[in-house]
Amino acid sequence: MHCIGIDIGGTKIAGALVDAGGSVIRQQRLPTPANDPDALIDAVIGLIEELAEGEEVLGVGVAAAGFIDAQQANIIYAPNLSWRNEPFKSKLEAKLSLPVVIENDANAAAWAEYRFGAGVGFRHMVMLTIGTGVGGAVITDSKMLRGGFGIAGELGHLRMVPNGLLCGCGQNGCLEAYASGTALLKAAKALASSSDPAGQRLRELQSGGQELSGQEVYSAIQEGDPGALGLLQEMGSWLGQAVASLTAVLDPEIVVIGGGVSVAGDLLLDPIRSAYLEHLPARGFRPELKIIAAEFVNNAGVVGAADLARVSLAPKVN
Amino acid sequence: MHCIGIDIGGTKIAGALVDAGGSVIRQQRLPTPANDPDALIDAVIGLIEELAEGEEVLGVGVAAAGFIDAQQANIIYAPNLSWRNEPFKSKLEAKLSLPVVIENDANAAAWAEYRFGAGVGFRHMVMLTIGTGVGGAVITDSKMLRGGFGIAGELGHLRMVPNGLLCGCGQNGCLEAYASGTALLKAAKALASSSDPAGQRLRELQSGGQELSGQEVYSAIQEGDPGALGLLQEMGSWLGQAVASLTAVLDPEIVVIGGGVSVAGDLLLDPIRSAYLEHLPARGFRPELKIIAAEFVNNAGVVGAADLARVSLAPKVN
Amino acid sequence: MHCIGIDIGGTKIAGALVDAGGSVIRQQRLPTPANDPDALIDAVIGLIEELAEGEEVLGVGVAAAGFIDAQQANIIYAPNLSWRNEPFKSKLEAKLSLPVVIENDANAAAWAEYRFGAGVGFRHMVMLTIGTGVGGAVITDSKMLRGGFGIAGELGHLRMVPNGLLCGCGQNGCLEAYASGTALLKAAKALASSSDPAGQRLRELQSGGQELSGQEVYSAIQEGDPGALGLLQEMGSWLGQAVASLTAVLDPEIVVIGGGVSVAGDLLLDPIRSAYLEHLPARGFRPELKIIAAEFVNNAGVVGAADLARVSLAPKVN
Amino acid sequence: MHCIGIDIGGTKIAGALVDAGGSVIRQQRLPTPANDPDALIDAVIGLIEELAEGEEVLGVGVAAAGFIDAQQANIIYAPNLSWRNEPFKSKLEAKLSLPVVIENDANAAAWAEYRFGAGVGFRHMVMLTIGTGVGGAVITDSKMLRGGFGIAGELGHLRMVPNGLLCGCGQNGCLEAYASGTALLKAAKALASSSDPAGQRLRELQSGGQELSGQEVYSAIQEGDPGALGLLQEMGSWLGQAVASLTAVLDPEIVVIGGGVSVAGDLLLDPIRSAYLEHLPARGFRPELKIIAAEFVNNAGVVGAADLARVSLAPKVN
Description:
Four copies of one chain form a homotetramer.
Chain A: E1 2-8, E2 12-18, E3 24-31, H1 37-52, E4 57-64, E5 67-68, E6 75-78, E7 83-86, H2 88-95, E8 100-104, H3 105-116, E9 125-130, E10 134-140, E11 143-144, H4 176-179, H5 181-193, H6 200-205, H7 214-223, H8 226-250, E12 254-258, H9 266-279, E13 290-293, H10 300-313
Parallel strand pairs in A: 1-4, 4-8, 9-12, 12-13
Antiparallel strand pairs in A: 1-2, 2-3, 5-6, 6-7, 9-10, 10-11
Helix pairs in contact in A: 3-10, 5-8, 7-8, 8-9
Protein name (chains A, B, C, D): Glucokinase
InterPro entries (chains A, B, C, D): ATPase_NBD (IPR043129), ROK (IPR000600), ROK_cs (IPR049874), ROK_glcA (IPR004654)
GO molecular function (chains A, B, C, D): ATP binding; glucokinase activity
């Protein structure tokens, strides 16, 4: 039997019917109804019904950015959707005849990698999803680490620097403030608007009168512009330092780097690996982990959400 | 049936016969044979045989400071005992007719708290043991977090300050460099040898010509000396900042503070609580955890080691 | 003979006729012509002519926020006025029959304190002007420290935290990012928009729907609100840490704290003093400096600019 | 007429008769009498008498590591010589018929560079002397910056990292803790005793059973060993960051790098230059200073001390 995975993003909702092997049978996308919770719920229900049509479906996993509670039923806090304490599971189940589990989006993506992608064959995995923010997920001993209140794995809020850069979470110095796509773009804008010769190419790429865009930064990286590459390396260094610190806590076998920024590949991964080694506590007296790129390109969220629903709805032996 | 717990410290080896409810039936101590691995193994075997005499024993748990591998069989690295890659389990089992599991000492102490002490009733617990160093242990979903290579939960090596104080692990800025008993004593010595008026009482307590001792610092704290209390509060602040950062990763329900320095009670715990709240990411948008003192005074290591052996040797259902 | 002092601020231009004892004979204010350099020059000339009318005037000192060159003739960079490499002295002298010297505004304010205010009787003084930003000035051996290119004393850009908060200068971790009025307001807004109980009073003071204003933060401080006072103390702690670091470089006898935020008096100065002592290198083995409040309320800029013109235009003996 | 310069080091006392052009006419060395203040004074007097014999001498400048008071008469604190509040000038003058001025050793070395070496032609110079510690000196507008209590220019105690590495001055995070010869050796020892492949060559150079020596580190650098060069570059980066921060305060035209470690030349200077540019506040909107190596090899201390005595004893015009 198949499961349905739904991934609610800031601009679009993706949905897929997924089989037990992680293959997408059928998929669909909708724009996210902005600022209208009821319309969003209706849109999700419509999408599920469409995907389920004519199929026997085991259940639905819904991934969203935010804090999900330990029962995987309620959204405690979703900054993008302006939701607090939203009983999302019960609202969906009230209109559907299918069981629903709610999941954090970074957890869903990590689960897809763990089961069908870069993490296959490992039991202890950490994933960092470098997009607008820095999402995190921890799989220990083959289980998703959820924590006491459901919100473990918020690795973007590991503190890197006391009194450091402001983070959207209200604190200072979080990893996300140094190593997200947003942080990269901010650093690139600062470089472009300075007189630093390293910002020369970024200044050229910037369309007249407008602020630098993420796309332009990405072009500069692909061209091999030393200025933009320097920023990417610095970002990688912060990520590697975070991996070293996380190793002391979690001791994973593997760290998977995903998200939009990870398309930079080894240009990002090599600095991560090198900073990890440089900052690893008791280096040389312990095994060293692997740092690799995510394998999924687009469907990690829906595939992971569907498979987590499958795991969560499976009969328990003990 | 009972289990035996052994706790190998730098100066003494403690052993106890422990029942299924965590009660100590019988116990014994020996001095640690210094720098002689074979003598140490013989001493541990002698202790086990003595404790086991006339009893039906399920198995033995041996706790030691250091990195234990994921099979709980080999000591990868034990700085105090100068051991690397020591096949401790097989050496002991070769001379005993009992199954043996090896365990990190901070894990053993945390397990005692989790099963029979401050952590009873919780499923997601973090423990920080503030002794000479800072030991750590993580229990998630009622299981000891071991990680891919057996050395998860080394929370003393979470990095607090980039380019910060030197740590014994070879890195800079680890929690242990700011919040261990050693760090407290070092700070107290510096204060006593300065001209700072806040060091007045420490200077008086210091025996003529000798360096300040940990006992003298403890006396100053108990007297309420503002200088010594200030150092303790600073130490508590670092621990609270670490708890806030760990919350992002692990999201525990409870943090237990143990070890020799924790006898300071709320003088230490209050600054931990207050720094935790001040540095908690997304404070106000999530539940807050409890920070409480350990309940065991002396036997956490042996009781936890014995009970972890029991858990580890129990028949598996799935 | 009198001198004229002009102080060009972001919103208004102040001018005064000042005697050799630092007393204001006559004064005048105008709004700053926004974004129109020529209009600004005309306004300054009009103001000078009005103040000079019927008086024998020795010369004119003009203070502006920005980098002034070593010849005190050209404005290298004035962020608020969008000026770069502006030959301000020659433009003014072209239309006036008076000698003109250009001066940094924080230098002018410090000179007024040094000659006629809090710094009287000292020869080595540092001043920190805490307004929107953090202005600085250094007087060593009774002379204004100008540096090789005219831009010494930019004390707001002493780095306090590697990889710290972003500063308007393009760097991270500058003092100004932690201890300016802007930084205080930013911290207060963050506290008010959190769920932290310490932000309760700030939330009440905030007018419905609008962002917190500086005036509301000031009210909270005056009421003794612990939340707002905590922010002020933290700001004071950063300033004291900066003073300790500056002492290693400059070894002044006295530090004068001025600017809008300094009206908080000892609520700000006490935390500065205490952090200075805590962070002073080789404390106890050296004299300790005085940290006191500025005495001028409004006219420091014009009085200092006028007197610096007098000093600068005086005949040189050697 | 000639002056005599004396430079009291931890292991030897150097003395020279120096002419008005900075040339050494005659020189002499003695071992420093350890731990015996009276013997040291006698040794210095003997050395002066010997150098002065048959010459008409204007005066004597004596350089020593430590805090010298503003009257250049008393040694407030000299850690190496265990002196506090030593009236050195009067003790020497009591037994000599020559005027004596006391000077900090880093100031003396800087003055030699300023007058006769790398700083010729500039008026605003900073010098960093990288030896066992980090000495500093500031020349502004052609004058030695002494500060209100005589101890300005202690640039090794500029704070680089809050809560950073311990410094001998009792504080944390001082430049000296990151960029002195001692810091370099400590970092090299740590690298050699780790399992890090980058420490391979240092491990080979280390004589069996003994700790790594400074000479061995220097050999590794000269061979081009990437591990040792990496440490030197990191040290250079800290120095460059310090120069950037000092620029905000002092705005010098030139920074001279001297002391034993500076023999590494551009291997050290290039990382200093590059970190300076990267961390310069308002980069691109201001002139950039020069960073160059010291020219004196051995005699900077005695030549500078002698010439500072000459300047100090010259008749004053104003």
